[in-house]
Design goal:
The chain is mainly alpha-helical. Helix content is 88%, strand content 0%. The protein contains one helix and no strands. The longest helix is centred in the middle third of the chain and has 57 residues, at 3-59. The N and C termini lie far apart (94 Å).
């Protein structure tokens, strides 16, 4: 194998490694974004539930203590 062929092979392998790295990072970023959206929706649901509970407590008739 000649020197320029070896350099060409190294360039091709480096390009493949970079492309694979970008694909993996993009996939992980998408997973993190999805997880964040799910967590945000769950927190919003919890907040809405707490607000309903507070509203019920405020509207409930007070008992004599």
């Amino acid at each position: 194998m000649k020197f320029y062929e070896l350099i060409s092979l190294i360039w091709i392998l480096a390009g493949l490694a970079i492309a694979l790295t970008w694909l993996i990072l993009r996939h992980r970023r998408a997973q993190a974004r999805t997880a964040l959206e799910v967590r945000s929706r769950a927190e919003s649901a919890q907040l809405a539930d707490l607000q309903v509970r507070v509203d019920r407590m405020e509207k409930a008739p007070r008992t004599a203590e």
